Amino acid sequence: MVIDENLVRELLNAPESDAAIVLLEGRAQVVGEAALAGNEFRGAAVLVSRGDLVDRLGASPTDEEVARLAASLRDAVDKLGA
Questions:
Q1: What is the mean pLDDT of residues 36-65?
Q2: Which alpha helices (H) appear in the chain, and where do they start and end?
């Protein structure tokens, strides 16, 4: 599982406004809401949505803010034992 600054930036730049970072079978990835409704992502845990991310950091966060959020997400997942 790689939750890093690149993944957070990928979410910020996702073409789908309803995209989210999800965790499924130990893998973190950016997925649109429509894909989450399908069988491929059944059971995926949503870590943060694009809307929540923009609300929290704004549309153009600094590299430091992105790094802090990525570290926070990694920490949260580690505490879950994933």
A1: 93
A2: 5-12, 33-36, 50-57, 63-80
- Give Cβ neighbours of residue 8 (< 8 Å, ≥ 6 apart): 21, 53, 66, 69, 70, 73
Nearest to 8, CA basis, from 80, 72, 82: 72
Give the residue from 45, 47, 15, 44 showing the smallest Cα distance to 32.
15
| Complete edge-to-edge strand list for the sheet that includes strand 20-24 | 27-31, 20-24, 45-49
Q: 7: which 2 tokens?
A: 């993944």
- Give the H or E element holding residue 30: strand 27-31
46 by DSSP, 3-state: which? strand
Residue 82 has pLDDT above 80, yes or no: no
- The pTM score is 0.89
